[in-house]
Amino acid sequence: MGLSAVTSFLIYKLFLRGLSAERHRNLRVQFKNLIFHSLLCVAFYGCFYGIRELLGADSHYVKIAPYFGLATIFWAAVVFVKTCRILIFEYLFFRSMTAGVPLLLVNIFTLGLSVLIAIWLLNNIFEFRLLPLVATSAVFSIVLGLALQETLGNLFSGIALQLDKPYSIGDWVEIFNGNQKLTGLVTEITWRATVLLSVTDEVITIPNRIVSQSQVNNYAAKSGPIIRSQTFRIPYGSDIRRVKQVLLRSVKSIEGIRNRPEPMVLTIESAESWIALRLIYYIDDFGKQFIINDEVLTFTLDALHKEHILLAPPRISVVSDKT
Description:
With 323 residues, the protein is α+β, with helices and mostly antiparallel strands. The protein folds into three domains: 2-136; 167-221, Roll (SH3 type barrels), CATH 2.30.30; 225-306, 2-Layer Sandwich (Alpha-Beta Plaits), CATH 3.30.70. It is 53% helix and 17% strand. It is built from ten helices and eight strands. Strand 3 and strand 4 (203-207) form a beta hairpin.
């Protein structure tokens, strides 16, 4: 137990110096909590050893020695679980230095390890056999499972999402559930829900069961640049090549638009009264798309105005039906 705690501290000091300030705070809180429980474990063991070995069997306090021994075992198990939890955090941080780490995986591991240790303690110390109890509580398990059906559905859906990884913490996503579209930055993935932060700083909590049944569009920059476009309609008789050059030149100085791949302008439509050109550009930050879109429209319209290039106005034809 002590070796595992020292190992986790050495890993933190030697290999995880480049973590963000938030992750440093997270690990420091974990280590402070580990030190506190370790001191409690040592204190209980000291009391147990002192009563049994130093005071002797004739002491009036010898009757309470088993209670200190039991407390020592319990806190030793707590220290072991917390050490393993720190090691899992360090492993996930080491694998992903920038992307967020979902607490769901860490919590599931902690819960599973705690249950295994509790079963071992009950069997080996208290000689409490769980198999007959489990066999006689089948009906209770069915009733409990039906009562927690939705909660368990969210839990297993969350585990499935972690295994499939359609998104990670820090990704911008669009979740389509029927006619409803929810857009936001993934900030947390818990055992029950996925938490999004929208572009208007609203916190959106979506149950994992609904997410697993929905269409998810991931706009993470690591999966490729995000494509955005604007359409401009120019009248017939305009110099199309010149208009394309003006549009491309106007967006080169906009911060947030990638130079590779380069922006492009394509002729996409030839209608009765105009020719439609589409300006296509690439960005990395989905959250800044509206600011970039505003700058694109501002810069392009200003450039077209300076070059005396007019956009085609909409036309409405009224036909009189005289009988």
